[in-house]
Specification:
The chain is built from 20 helices and 19 strands. The chain has about 550 residues and is an alpha+beta fold.
Length: about 550
Amino acid sequence: MSNPDGPRTGRPPFRGQNGAVATSHYLASQAGVEALQRGGSAVDAAIAANAVLCVAYPHMAGLGGDGFWLLAGGGIEGVEAIDASGPAAAAATLASYRAQAVNGAIPARGALAALTVPGAVDGWRLAHERHGKLAWASLFDAAIGLARDGVPVSRSVADWTAQDEPLLRAQPRTAAIFLPGGGVPKDGDRLVQSDLAASLEAIASGGARSFYEGEIASRICAALSAEGSPLAASDFAVYEARWVEPVSAAYRGHDVYEMPPPTQGFSALQIFAMLDGLDVASWGDGTADYYHHMAEAVKIAFADRDTWLTDPAFVDIPLERFLAREYIDERRALIDPETAAAVGSVAAGIPYPTDHELKVPEGDTCYFAAADDDGLVVSLISSIYMDYGTTVVAGDTGIIMQNRGAFFSLDENHPNVLAPGKRTFHTLAPAMLLKDGRPVLAFGSMGGEGQPQSQAAMATRIIDFGYDVQQAIEAPRWLMGRTWGVASRNLSLEGRISDEVVRELERRGHPVQPLTDWNDNMGHAQAILIDHETGFYEAGADPRGDGAALGF
């Protein structure tokens, strides 16, 4: 049931019993539903949707990026997880990047920023081998057709292409594709990506490993190495995505599941665990108490994250301690109900052995979810890191390479210091909610630091305030810190939050930054709720993006 007091923009949630797909682009959602209607699984739908996102949302997702999966239901006991993030190249040494650093950091754009293997495609393989029903090649038909014949430019693509025009124009191959005719495309123009269509066709016919062991990898690396990237075909050939154990915490009788490090999933769990000991419902949604406590919990969780998070194969992260009840109680006690802690003033509960300068993440992402008639539910996130990633299209492949490796530190005392074969700190964090061992909610959002915060917003509004998924997605959101493309570390609030609440938050000491009513900086959230009483899937998509929640 919907909360009659919840927000409405005229977009209802989708409800259906056979399957649902919710993505940040309507054509991706359509491709996913078509896969379900052909008898495919939620994994088939997710791969088909992700492939279309690589075409229709090239500034946020791509074959040159990473991905993370959570899967539950459909015969799965508990939750399965796939880490499809790639490590730094064997030749990506600290010494080599220090010699080429810009202002003491790895360049964020250009071929030097292409230093990690893209893992997304092999994540598709791993999920399909275990849970796919349709033939692999058939999953790419929609994406290939849209890349070859042209996809309509969406609002988000048009806006970000205009903002990134100087970066794109500096890369001739990139400009030829995304600045057709030398100009910035408008919303509704046709964007043709013929080279990307050919790469998708090669993956469809040759399988996922052809991306890593065949001609595509060789062509990518040949083009990139000529411009300074350390990536080599051998880095691609040895890479494999991997099944990993998710991490979890309790919230209101539910089990919240997140990805383990190197993602920030444990920070989301800390937020939920702190909120679990507070009477969220008593505050009322949209009140100063609600936003204040949410922001304070975020500051505390991020202090641990920024101090420790990196590849756990290189740093022994005290994860069990971070999620222990006694520790959460200690951290929750730091929240002053009337006064905001200064941004950056909250110390990590467990200091890292060596002091280091914190670096705040940002990034572009596509979060999406799928569910099928067997009860299999997928929560998936895919990204090329910043908008348009490195901005480098690798040769004639049509593939934009991610710049995730630019987030590595060049400080040898930093836990996230660059090392060959190491995975960097990841903001990517899909989420899943289970009750009595059954999945009840797949949810998440793009948006760097905003991802755990958007998850907390959606889950509290569904569980504590009784909103349907569309209401929970559309309700005004906040952002403590920064997200994609934004440098400030204020408490950003959407304009639909009342002036009275804003004044009260300022009185409590929050550095409030008002935003527009519906703001991209809040991220594009999607969710699928599984109502085990009615047997319906309830799906929602974010009007801040270009998505849709569809099904049948």
